[in-house]
Write a structure and sequence with these properties.
Helices cover 41% and strands 16% of the residues. It is of the alpha/beta class. The protein has a single domain (3-187), classed as Rossmann fold (3-Layer(aba) Sandwich), CATH 3.40.50.
Length: 199
């Protein structure tokens, strides 16, 4: 069993982050979750999962209950808790996902700003040379957005835009979300059967 970080920032597409958390938890991995304030608001609006105002333990249990995962696989850390374990390189993880990744968060990560726990954790993952994957959510993209993505890609960060394929004829929104979440897990070397593969 490995330990991963999943961060949800303030962009539409919070279902991607939840699907990744679920895939990791069902594969038996520990998942340390953090979210920006905006990410928590959008999570509530888009998925009905409301963890606003909860402490870390209560938020973690609410996420697990929402996803139907087993007990004690998910921990939650508020964005202003820079004492959280994921803010230190000595807390070993197998990698980090930022899904969805807003352009503000992208800019913070690309420029080492580390304004909150989400950005600090990503900064740690980069400096420790651990795998980082972001799911950018914006359209259209400006040259600034593309330059920030290129900067991270040159450091080895996986850039996985939320562009679901249609060759597998998805029937539901969940099918499209899972195709991105499954590809994200694939890139990080996590076995999953979340989507129909080309054969």
């Amino acid at each position: 069993m490995s330990r991963y970080i999943v961060a949800i920032s303030g962009a539409s597409g919070s279902a991607y982050g939840l699907a990744i958390i679920k895939g990791l938890a069902y594969a038996g991995h520990e998942v340390a979750v953090t979210a920006s304030r905006e990410g928590i608001s959008i999570l509530r609006d888009e998925t009905g999962l409301d963890i606003s105002g909860m402490d870390g333990e209560a938020a973690a249990r609410e996420v697990e209950s929402h996803l139907g995962t087993g007990p004690l696989t998910v921990s939650f850390h508020a964005e202003d808790n820079l004492y959280a374990p994921i803010s230190s390189g000595s807390f070993r993880t197998a990698g980090m996902f930022v899904a969805p990744c807003s352009m503000k968060t992208l800019a913070g990560i690309a420029n080492g700003y580390a304004n909150n726990l989400l950005e600090r954790a990503a900064d740690v993952v980069i400096k420790e040379r651990r795998p980082l994957l972001i799911v950018p959510r914006e359209t259209p993209l400006s040259a600034i957005h593309l330059e920030n993505m290129l900067k991270l890609a040159r450091l080895g960060v996986h850039i996985l835009p939320a562009m679901p394929g249609f060759y597998n004829r998805p029937q539901t929104i969940e099918d499209m979300v899972n195709s991105i979440a499954g590809r994200a897990l694939d890139l990080m070397g996590v076995d999953n059967d979340m989507y129909k593969r080309w054969s």
